[in-house]
Amino acid sequence: MSRKYLIAGNWKMNLTPSESEELASGVAKAVGKDASVEVVVSPTFTALDRVSKIIEDSTVKLGAQNMSPKASGAYTGEISAAMLRDVFTKYVILGHSERREYFGETDVLVNEKVLFALESQIKPILCIGETLEDREADKTLEVVKTQLLGGLESVEESQLVDVVIAYEPVWAIGTGKTATPEMAQEVHASIRSLLSEKYSASAAEKVQILYGGSMKPANAEDLLAQADIDGGLIGGAALDAASFGALVEAAKKAP
Ligand code: PEP
Question: Which residues of the chain have pLDDT under 50?
C-alpha cells in the first residue's frame, strides 16, 4: 500500500497552554524524527503557538480543531487560515460531529471550510459519520455518502491528495464503544469507492481514510490491519503521551 498511516490527536477543549506543552513534549519525545508514520497533534487555539515550538524539531505536525471559511474581517470569535498558517499549522479538523451537533455546522459550511483550507495550504481532515439512530435505521452508508459528497463539493481531483477523511461513527466517540474492524472496514471501503466514482480509482487510492471512535492501544492493531483504514483520529487516548505513542507504534507495525 502506498498510503502512509496517519495518527492524529484531537485534544478538544482540554489542557491549558502549559499542559499542552507538556503533552506535546511527551509526544515529540515518543515520535522523534521517525517519519514512517505521520503524526499530528491538535491542541486548542491558545496552545497552538507554544505547541508549534515544542514540536518543531520532531516530525510531529500541528493541527487545529476548526477554522473560519472567511479570510478575515468582522467575524467575532473566529480564527482564520492565515492565523493558523502563521504558527505552522498543517492540518485542520473540519466537520467534527461535536461541531455539527453543538454548533450547528452543516455540510454546506463544512464544504466552504474545506475549500478555504485547501486554498490556504492547510490539509483538511474532513470528519463524517452516522449517529446511533442512523445506524439502527440502516442509514449509515447513506449518511456517510451525503456528508462525504457534501463536504467535497467543488474539490478538484488534483486537490484530493491533500484531503484526509475521518470516518467517525458518532456513537463510538468518547463512549468506549468501538466499531468492530469489519464494521469500520465496510464503511471505509464504501468511502473509497465513492471517491473512486467521483474522481478516479487512482486518486481514491491515495486518500488517507482514518477511523475515529474510542481507538486505543488495545483495539488499534485490529482496526489498522483493515485494508482501507489508514490511521486514526484519536480523542481520549491522545491526551496521554504513552497511549498516543503506543498508537503510533501500532501504526508502524501495521501491514
Ligand atoms: C474524536 O473526538 O475524534 C474521537 C475519536 O474521540 P475518542 O477517541 O475519545 O472517541
Answer: none
